[in-house]
Amino acid sequence: MRRPSCVHPHSLLESLPQEAQHHGVYLRPLLQALLQVLPASQGPKRRLRGLGRFTVAFRAAYYQLARRVLAEKRQVIPCYAGWASAHIAPNGDVWTCCVRADPVGNLRQTAYDLRPIWFEQVGRLRELRRSIRAQECACPMANASYANMLLHPPTLLRVARDVLRR
Ligand code: SF4
Question: Rounded to an integer, what distance in angstroms lies between the CA atom of residue 155 and that of residue 72?
Answer without folding.
Answer: 18
